[in-house]
Design brief:
- By secondary structure, the protein is an alpha+beta fold.
- Helix content is 44%, strand content 11%.
- It is built from three helices and two strands, in the order αββαα.
- It is elongated.
Length: 89
């Protein structure tokens, strides 16, 4: 096998493994039922580091710290969204 073929195979293997791990944003547990922020609707991890908040024992992951202010206005609403999503899994 020539070196160009070897390099092409290695690149394809590395890209495949990158996409395999792309379904969970960094900082979000594997079992978390949502891929989008309950406040903004943006994908988790899209704005960098996710923010973890909690309401009555339910962990909620937000796409950014800007969403925390809106979360605090009605935390029960957002906790319910997570609980409902967990029930669907």
């Amino acid at each position: 096998m020539n070196s160009k073929s070897t390099i092409a195979i290695l690149i394809a293997a590395l890209m495949g493994s990158t996409f395999a791990f792309a379904d969970a944003a960094p900082g979000v547990p594997k079992g978390y039922p949502l891929k989008k922020c309950v406040v903004s609707g943006d994908p988790l991890g899209e704005h960098g580091r996710v923010v973890k908040v909690a309401h009555e024992g339910t962990d909620i992951y937000l796409c950014c710290k800007d969403c925390v202010k809106d979360f605090k206005k009605d935390p029960a609403k957002y906790a319910k969204m997570v609980k409902d999503a967990q029930g669907k899994k």
